[in-house]
Design a protein that fits this description.
Layout (H helix, E strand, L loop, with lengths): L22 E5 L3 H22 L5 E4 L8 E2 H6 L6 H10 L3 H6 L7 E2 L8 H14 L4 E5 L7 H12 L9 E6 L10 E4 L1
Parallel strand pairs: 1-6, 1-7, 2-5, 5-6
Antiparallel strand pairs: 3-4
Length: 191
């Protein structure tokens, strides 16, 4: 068995407060840690919001992008009203402009089940674009830059996630194992 000097209870958790419209980065050693943080945050937020009767809209961006069998544009709008100016801004910010030029029917290209006709990076950017377009109060980002090249990741961080990106007025929680953008975040929590 275990020696009596060791406790099986985890150390007490420190409360972390993340201000509205700030960016918090959780640095996780593994994808399992990152996923656990996202799930626990969603559960805690739902409980707190029910208790205080506060409404909020969150958009998780999982590392395994969820894509429906529909057009690329429908995958981004996802039942939100169509706004051409906002849509074009999101497409540009999420580095999808070149992809639309390559796809046979542009944003009207039919995407197969689970995004079979898209690369991993394209799926991740479509998933991110859906979250950005949704105008959520809170975005839970599970390492969305891991599936893209470094120059594309830099573009997305600067134009979407970072302090001057289109999400600057939103609360962004980025769970990652990368350290590249730590200096540009408001809060850093190492797991």
């Amino acid at each position: 068995g275990f020696p009596r000097t060791h406790s099986l209870r985890p150390p007490p958790a420190r409360q972390q407060r993340v201000r509205r419209s700030s960016q918090c980065e959780f640095v996780a050693a593994s994808a399992a840690h990152a996923f656990t943080v996202i799930v626990l945050l969603l559960i805690k937020l739902r409980i707190v919001c029910r208790y205080w009767r506060v409404a909020f809209h969150s958009s998780p961006v999982p590392q395994q992008a969820w894509i429906q069998n529909s057009t690329l544009k429908d995958n981004i709008l996802f039942c939100s009203p169509d706004n051409d100016k906002k849509y074009d801004e999101v497409i540009d910010a999420c580095a999808l402009t070149t992809d639309l030029e390559i796809l046979p029917a542009g944003d009207q290209t039919e995407i197969g089940e689970k995004g079979i006709n898209l690369s991993g990076g394209q799926k991740q950017r479509v998933s991110l674009a859906r979250a950005v377009y949704s105008n959520s109060d809170l975005l839970l980002l599970d390492d969305p830059l891991s599936a893209v090249d470094s120059h594309v990741g830099k573009h997305i961080f600067n134009r979407v996630i970072g302090p001057n990106g289109v999400l600057a007025g939103k609360t962004r929680i980025l769970v990652t194992h990368g350290l590249t953008y730590l200096p540009e975040t408001d809060h850093v929590i190492v797991l």
